[in-house]
Request: fold
Amino acid sequence: MSAAATALPAAEERGAPLAPLSRLRLLTRNKLALTGAVAAAILVLIAVFAPLIAPYDPARPDFTAALREPGWAHWLGTDDLGRDQLSRVVYGVRASLQIGLLAVALAFAAGVPLGLIAGYYGRFADSVVSRLTDTLLAFPFLVLAVGLATILGPSLLNATIAVGVSQIPAVIRITRAETLRLKHLDYVAAAVANGGGDGTVLFRHILPGALSALTVQATVGIPTAIIGEALLSFLGLGVQPPSPSLGVMLSSAQAYIAAAPWMAVFPGLAIIAATLAFNLLGDGLRDILDPQGDSR
Amino acid sequence: MTTSTAPPALSVRDLSVVFRTPTRVVHAVDGLSFDIAAGEVLAVVGESGCGKSVTSTAVLGLLPPTASVGGSIRLGGRELVGADESELRDVRGRELAMIFQEPMTSLNPVLTIGRQVGEVLRRHQGIGRREARERAVDLLDLVGIPAPAQRARDYPHQLSGGMRQRVMIAIAIACDPAVLIADEPTTALDVTVQAGILEVLRSLRERLGTAIVLITHDLGVVADTADRVLVMYAGRGVEQAPVDELFGAPRHPYTRGLLGAVPVPGRGRAAGGRRRLQEIPGLVPSLTEQPDRCTFQPRCSYADERCGEQRPALRALRAPRERDERSAGYERYGPERHEAACWYPVPVHPEPTEPEPTEEEAAS
Amino acid sequence: MSYPIRRLGESLITLFLVSVVVFTGVRALPGDTATALAGEEPTPEAIAQIRESYGLDDNIVVQYLRYVRHAATGDLGVSSRTGLPVLDSVLEALPVTLELSALALLLAVVVGVGAGVVAAVRRGRPEEWLVNAVALLGLSVPAFWLGIVLVLAFAIAVPVFAASGFVPFGVDPMENLRHMVLPVIVLGSGLAAVVMRQTRAAMLGSLSADYVRTARAKGLSRRQVIMGHALRNSLVTVVTVLGLQLGHLISGAVVTEQIFVLPGFGKLTIDAVFSRDYAMVQGVVLFTSTAYILVNLLVDLAYSVIDPRIRLGGAQ
Reply:
């Protein structure tokens, strides 16, 4: 059989599990994914070194320079209060990435343990977690954010919580599916048979196996979170002015849409760049780590 | 069996199939020729990956665009290689039908059985929905499905594997095709179910005179069902003979290895009985090259320099045994002809120098 | 237990949990619940009346049961801002949101399924590349930014469509559509991208399935094979995805209405948040979540109609 398999042209592509090194090679061969990775790295650098990059104080108004078109002094123009758009976009990217990462971390901190429990113990635990997931899903992202903003008041922290909580069901679902899949694999069954405790099996054997799928989920979770934050800030439920945020910038741009379109264009392009970078990276990672495709 | 003068229902000449991917080239089928007459059952045997299924897919013109097909495939008087897609579509399902290996997945899970059988009738016979439905029920009855009118309303998952394969046969024979290709039709089924499916195929041949190309691993199925056998190795045809003769006196070393026993003259059928293909030491050669030598040479214990330098053609052998005096007739097309692609065909009677194997060796 | 009944049971449990969360949410408001519910700058009489009508001095379980009984009969409380029953405001805003959502869904399905089929059938060709690129862009462009840009292009620069406001369809169909075009594109584009990607993935799967090979071996035309066999199977996936996207549709509708000043459900919600109209927020959240659960239930039941394996309790 093994010898005969060479006759099938597709056999090579289906292939055996890849070694980490060849995965890295695949990443470089997948041009889109590489583009995404480079773009994401640049964005992270911009966020980390924002104070060095921004030419002006992003929050300091300068009424003598309000609504300036893009030019040499202000590359991306100024807003209605004369604040430098470039500086605000740079700090906005920083805020977006912070919130994105925090929200995804929150979703994973809650979702991964619940998914593991549901998948590993099954039965009662599974039904409880499933109902919990359904209940969370029944509050669409914005409805959840509205509720939180109503109870706790609109703020950056509450926006992050809303964005994070709305991603919990997806994390639970993926962790659960992976756990179910891995639980029945021989090496996990062997670990159980050898008297490995639940903790050992879960954290030594199942979690590492689920890492690929979770990595992809994290990568696609970040752009969703970035858009979510921008959305909430745009509606006034997230970051509060005068703190720089891409969503806040777009919100104030709406009033000047005809007079100063650059106020809307550049923050929007920044959001697109950030989400596109992580979406490309996520798509590429999915192709590399899970060749069966994105059927689910 | 047909007379040797009848024109073949399907005639394949020098067929080659090459898959080209950016990284390599695979010669899946290389210079294959065979004929099959109406009412005949030709078994195609060989290890997996030898090109059997690629051949059948090529005959239907269903290969992916990465494949390039050369040579000639003539159905009746019509050339299929190079024919345009709409012409092929008129042939498929009407004159040329196929049964696939996987009855579990070959039917569409979201359509009823009746719809899937009726569909092929509506396509080729231009009849309405209602008439197609009635004819579909008749066909299900014909292939031995109990309560066909009810089954027609069922979905594939409600039927057993054997029943699904019968549905596949009903689809295949709906338009009385001249040629039916059955690719491992019983491999996925239980032994008891297998017998029923083979019985359906045999009765088809009797009643409708369908030419059947039976692709299989199972020598028992071959012995039970086939008139003639074509043995394939690494994309090439290596031996072709009437079934009794192939089992009784295999002339190609590969066939001998495949049958796993030294033939006993006069007990051909028994020697080939219910037995799976035997393992032969060595590896099937990579199909990325197209060597000008016998592809079996690396694994052959009879090979010499000539085998490593020149490619043997599939050619008619002098008829063995008592048929010698009629050998002129074997050179023409005909079901009696015995061909092998070997420079040194295995003699019919073993050389005295070759020791007779013991029972254990024969079984191993 | 048959599938529909089990599914119904699950929905009821979820509904119960949702009602508990919404009920608790209002009690978790900072400060005194009655004061909060009475709206901004309440009079002592108003607070006392609220305390009385909500029965806030009763046992919490009694309060919950009363809340559920009221909600079940359509009594979602009274808006502190307008003094009108919450349900009336909701029902008034609903047609706008439903029209917007239905048209956006239609756009998403037509464009998404169409493009997904093209991308799968023309695999490895320029068409697939183009469709994939547009879909990725659709996923990465935030709807509200697209809204701003579209307003700039088609309502300000070239004023063909309306930038804001709503005209009921019954009053003037043409004007209604002129006001809906941009919002529908804004809401539908992201959804179309998701539908497209799922359709493409599902189609790639079914196009390489054995039953498609069977269909081709029958001599069916390309169109019959793609539409009758491959797409028919892929639709099961697409319907599931649409169900999962319902939350996004609701969130998207809120934003879209905010951008285009449509007097729908979303605008009602956001206005309520900023005027601290807690009864309204509570009513809207409960209404939305209940609708979400019901629609998902319907989608799952529809799913079982499309896929006989589930309907007849076979596989799974």
About this structure: DSSP finds 14 helices and no strands in chain C. Residues 199 and 287 of chain C are 31 Å apart (CA to CA). The mean pLDDT of chain C is 85. Residues 86-121 of chain C form the longest helix (36 residues).
